[in-house]
Amino acid sequence: MSIAALSLAAALAGQQLASLGGPPPTWPTPDKICRTEIDAQSNPVLLDAVIAACKDDIRYAPNDAEAYLQRGVALYHEGDYQTASADLVRAQGLAPDRADVLFYLGLVANKLGNPKGAIERYSEALKRDPKQTSAYLNRGALYVAAAQYERAIADYSQALALEKDDASIAFRRGFARLQAGDFKGAIADYSQGLKQKPDSDAYRYRGVAKRNLGDYAGAVADYDEALKLSPGDAGALLSRGIAYSYMLDGARAISDYTQAIALDGSDPNAHLLRASALRTSGKKTEALADLDSALRLDPNNAYAHADRGGLDYELGNFAAAIDDDSAAIAIDPKLSAAYGNRCRARAAAGTALDAALADCNQAIVLSPKEADFYAGRAFVSLKLGHYDDAVADVNRALELGFKDSGHRATALFTRGLAVMRKSDGASGKADLDAAYALDPDVKAQMQSWGIQAAR
């Protein structure tokens, strides 16, 4: 028999054995396709080819860790996480010291909804290869998601030590520091990254850090840069609007919120922010319309219910205010503003003073440094005839300080009446005069809440 005939016979014999489920007599060189480098951008056709080639390799060599790894990676990129996990576990059993296998097991664990398991896998991978930047980054991201910011910062610091010129890592650490409340550290990280790479999100988050430090002009400058890079960024417009609100520039704040709503009218928070700016500017009817829009978009938005309750209270719609604040509390029982609003509305309505007092007490438990809540409780105490309690609460509110001069005026008016009703007319009159100086309409406001007083 010729050499060609012998070769053909051997090939046919191999095919016959394969058809019977048995392996060919020899294992050829591992398929190069199985070893092809693949990633998230790989063509689905290539991924299928890798899976098929690795399947053949595994059939020839059931203990080939590389084939299990490659097939597992391809399955991961195709979104078949369960099957990928099985292949990667087999690869890890065959090659327990391979950091790359453990890294992909971390990726799969996270996709399967097991972040704790993912962190454990990344940690094992880093024990075997402490220079695996991607493992630090992925573990850091999981720590951020779990609000373990200091651990995330440590991981991003390790990654930066390995990749000093990677702006994206500096941005990641900046975000973790921002979430941790380290605003100066966040600014430093974003500034470091921005020297290497302009990025609209980085400017925006640096602006948030500056805003939290009271540098509103610096924040606006960063939001301006963000909007130059991404002119249609509704988030940057909202952030700049917030900074303008802190600067008491209501017109610019409203303009930014309006532009953001034009870009994305489906965001309830944009309507909520504009409502706040409109309310501060005295445009209460327009503010109420925005709050209605916010609640149409998100009926379970506790902040929108509480804000509408507060606005209804200011407009004298006490029953509506109580309903909205009650809805807010049902959604978020820890929302102190809703208790404070409902306290004032109940007191102004004059129908449930004990319940009003309980609401103010709860608001103070939740936010013990909010002056308005002490002033609200003082108002309730005045109506109940508890004048010493009213005076003590106004004193505490004045120590804490008011954000709004109108609220300070009503608090002074409350204390003045309480003092006068205790028969100290001179001291009481001084408080009333101070209240009128801050707000000439304070008497009319108090009368609308059921308090009568002669000047």
Overview of this structure, please?
- By secondary structure, the chain is mostly helical.
- The model is unreliable at 1-28 (pLDDT under 50).
- It has a domain at 378-455.
- The protein has helices at 3-19, 44-60, 65-78, 81-94, 99-111, 115-128, 133-145, 149-162, 167-180, 183-196, 200-212, 216-229, 234-246, 250-263, 268-280, 284-297, 302-314, 318-331, 336-349, 353-366, 371-384, 387-400, 405-421, 425-438, 442-448.
- It is built from 25 helices and no strands.
Q: Count up the helices.
A: 25
| Spatial separation of the terminal alpha carbons | 127 Å
Structural class by sheet pairing and helices: mainly alpha
Number of DSSP strands?
Answer: 0
Low-confidence stretches: 1-28
* Largest sheet features: none
N to C succession of SSEs? HHHHHHHHHHHHHHHHHHHHHHHHH
Radius of gyration: 33 Å
Q: How are the secondary structure elements laid out?
A:
Elements: H1 3-19, H2 44-60, H3 65-78, H4 81-94, H5 99-111, H6 115-128, H7 133-145, H8 149-162, H9 167-180, H10 183-196, H11 200-212, H12 216-229, H13 234-246, H14 250-263, H15 268-280, H16 284-297, H17 302-314, H18 318-331, H19 336-349, H20 353-366, H21 371-384, H22 387-400, H23 405-421, H24 425-438, H25 442-448
Helix pairs in contact: 2-3, 3-4, 3-5, 4-5, 5-6, 6-7, 7-8, 8-9, 9-10, 9-11, 10-11, 11-12, 11-13, 12-13, 13-14, 14-15, 15-16, 15-17, 16-17, 17-18, 17-19, 18-19, 19-20, 19-21, 20-21, 21-22, 21-23, 22-23, 23-24, 23-25
